[in-house]
Design brief:
The longest helix has 14 residues. The protein is globular, with a radius of gyration of 18 Å. The chain contains eight helices and seven strands, in the order H-H-E-E-H-H-E-E-E-E-H-H-H-E-H. Helix 2 runs parallel beside helix 4, helix 4 crosses helix 6 and helix 4 crosses helix 7. It is mainly α.
Length: about 170
């Protein structure tokens, strides 16, 4: 298993998005980290004026998942992490899926991101795609991939806390 980590895999002088998109062409599983901050940035209409690299990653992952022949992406398995709070002396991670209001996402296409995606797809000899709204991409990423998602609130709040109840605050 080879993991693409931008702090290690990016080479000086190469475009950031070109590097991660090329790596995705050779990936079996794409594992995006989805947090409230990630989603909050996508809600802004100002974000529609520039390339959104997270949205670009998600869009390409979905395209590669749909375009099976010749490309190995077989699954998208997001890591979902909701808002983290300290309540009653204990840290709690909230269910991200309960925090999302899809109507808050723009019902518009991020054209600069679409242009960059299609530029890359042409270079990879893959069919270009039509515009999909930010709202549709977020819904698709979260809804179709939930069965494969790592839900941090479940792991931390249910399983992990049961194993650390006996520890002091310093040990946790």
């Amino acid at each position: 298993v080879e993991v693409f980590r931008d702090s290690v895999a990016l080479q000086p002088g190469l475009a950031f998005d070109e590097s991660f998109m090329k790596a995705m062409l050779h990936s079996l599983v794409v594992v995006p980290l989805i947090t409230p901050d990630t989603l909050e940035r996508m809600k802004s209409s100002n974000n529609l004026k520039e390339i959104d690299h997270v949205l670009l990653e998600w869009w390409l992952a979905l395209v590669l998942l749909d375009h099976k022949p010749g490309y190995p992406v077989t699954r998208i398995a997001p890591i979902l992490c909701g808002t983290v709070e300290e309540e009653g002396g204990r840290m709690t991670i909230h269910n991200l899926l309960h925090e999302i209001k899809y109507e808050e996402f723009p019902d518009e296409v991020n054209e600069p991101t679409l242009t960059r995606l299609n530029q890359f797809l042409k270079g990879a000899k893959l069919p270009v795609v039509q515009g999909v709204t930010v709202r549709e991409l977020v819904q698709r990423m979260l809804k179709i991939n939930v069965p494969h998602a790592c839900q941090c609130w479940y792991l931390f709040n249910k399983k992990c806390m049961a194993n650390v109840d006996h520890l002091s605050d310093e040990q946790r």
